[in-house]
């Protein structure tokens, strides 16, 4: 029987969010209903609200979430009622060319729930953010979007792996292949950039250089594992990174902003044959110009990181275990906990750079 729950809706471009009653249908084949316990406020939700991702309003926002499976549909065997799960937005298909070649983290046919949640007041279909829609008491997802982890972890920190923290850690470990003794530079020290710093420290990087224009963010980056900081308002970040790496540049440079100017900085701040990882998300109108001779002459790798090139079934449990062992401080990413009716104010604080992560607790 369908259920009615409270959820945070973005009704139109740049309009304030509001709480509405949402109808959550019973799970169909391959689907699951999850009772949400906590959900992080991510920049991607703000992009949805601003119309920067699509114009399929109204959106049911929220995607960085953890909770408990309440019910599952026919054919679901990997999770069941009572399982504590982190939600992910790349449920792999297992049959596309990437999956069949043993690279499921590149899956080209990820899927979401086929049924739609609706507004109780009008019956209008909702577009769930990243196929999840977790600023709600319960949500409907594809069962493959549920990843079981150790229930000993707090939902407030576990949910962060659902997007930003996983994207950053994965950009360092999975995409950038940061190794022991490497030098790493991270440009942009928000949640994703700080996670890339934490991931680089986990991987054994010897030197981790944090770059940002906000001294508050640089201070936080140090607490996450940065060994050096550069305020790029005050000095040329390319020259600063070279100075800190013997004049050569960093082995891996992770761009966590998603702008042409910061990407160029990353490109020229890497060592010859070094690696650039783009994990910051650009907007559709942005263009990049680089001398083709420089692309050829500097060698190395220019990579994009999709969700940290993660495989949720592999990476989520591992990172939760590291957290429970005291080796990865996920709690350090949580600036504040809030209620559903405080999401709009949380967006404002995020925009000002006042928080690393606000987390909605239900």
From TrEMBL:
Annotated family:
Belongs to the zinc-containing alcohol dehydrogenase family.
- Identify a single GO molecular function assigned to this protein: mycothiol-dependent formaldehyde dehydrogenase activity
Q: Which UniProt keywords apply?
A: Metal-binding, Oxidoreductase, Zinc
Q: Which residue range or ranges hold the Enoyl reductase (ER) domain?
A: 12-362
The Swiss-Prot or TrEMBL record lists the needed cofactor(s) as: Zn(2+)
Q: What is its EC number?
A: 1.1.1.306
Quote the NCBIfam families the UniProt record gives: mycoS_dep_FDH
- What protein is this chain from? S-(Hydroxymethyl)mycothiol dehydrogenase
Q: What is the lineage of its organism?
A: Bacteria, Bacillati, Actinomycetota, Actinomycetes, Kitasatosporales
**Pfam short name (any one):** ADH_zinc_N
Biological source species: Streptomyces marokkonensis
What's the superkingdom here? Bacteria
């Amino acid at each position: 029987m369908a259920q009615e729950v409270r959820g945070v809706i973005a009704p139109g471009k740049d309009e304030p969010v509001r709480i509405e009653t949402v109808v959550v249908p019973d799970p169909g084949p391959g689907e699951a209903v999850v009772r949400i316990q906590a959900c992080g406020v991510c920049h991607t939700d703000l992009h949805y609200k601003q119309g920067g991702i699509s114009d399929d309003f109204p959106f049911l926002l929220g995607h960085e979430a953890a909770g408990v499976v309440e019910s599952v549909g026919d054919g679901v065997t990997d999770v069941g009622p009572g399982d504590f799960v982190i939600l992910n937005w790349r449920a792999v298909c297992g049959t596309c060319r990437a999956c069949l070649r043993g690279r499921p983290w590149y899956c080209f046919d990820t899927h979401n729930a086929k049924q739609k949640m609706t507004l109780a007041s009008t019956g209008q279909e909702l577009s769930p953010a990243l196929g999840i829609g977790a600023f709600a008491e319960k949500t409907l997802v594809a069962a493959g979007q549920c990843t079981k982890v150790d229930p000993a972890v707090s939902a407030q920190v576990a949910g962060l792996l659902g997007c930003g923290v996983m994207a950053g850690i994965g950009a360092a470990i999975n995409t950038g292949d940061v190794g022991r003794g490497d030098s790493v530079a991270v440009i942009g020290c928000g949640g994703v950039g700080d996670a890339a710093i934490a991931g680089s420290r986990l991987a054994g990087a010897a030197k981790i250089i944090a770059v940002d224009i906000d001294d508050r963010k640089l201070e936080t980056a140090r607490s996450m594992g940065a060994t050096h900081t550069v305020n790029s308002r005050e000095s040329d970040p390319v020259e600063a990174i070279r100075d800190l790496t013997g004049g050569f540049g960093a082995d891996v440079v992770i761009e966590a902003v998603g702008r042409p100017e910061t990407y160029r900085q990353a490109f020229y701040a890497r060592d010859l044959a070094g690696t650039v990882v783009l994990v910051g998300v650009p907007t559709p109108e942005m263009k990049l110009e680089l001398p083709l001779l420089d692309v050829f002459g500097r060698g190395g790798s220019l990579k994009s990181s999709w969700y940290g090139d993660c495989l949720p079934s592999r990476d989520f449990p591992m990172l939760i275990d590291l957290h429970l062992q005291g080796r990865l401080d996920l709690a350090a990413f949580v600036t504040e906990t809030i209620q559903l009716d405080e999401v709009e104010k949380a967006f404002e604080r995020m925009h000002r750079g006042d928080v690393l992560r606000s987390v909605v607790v239900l």
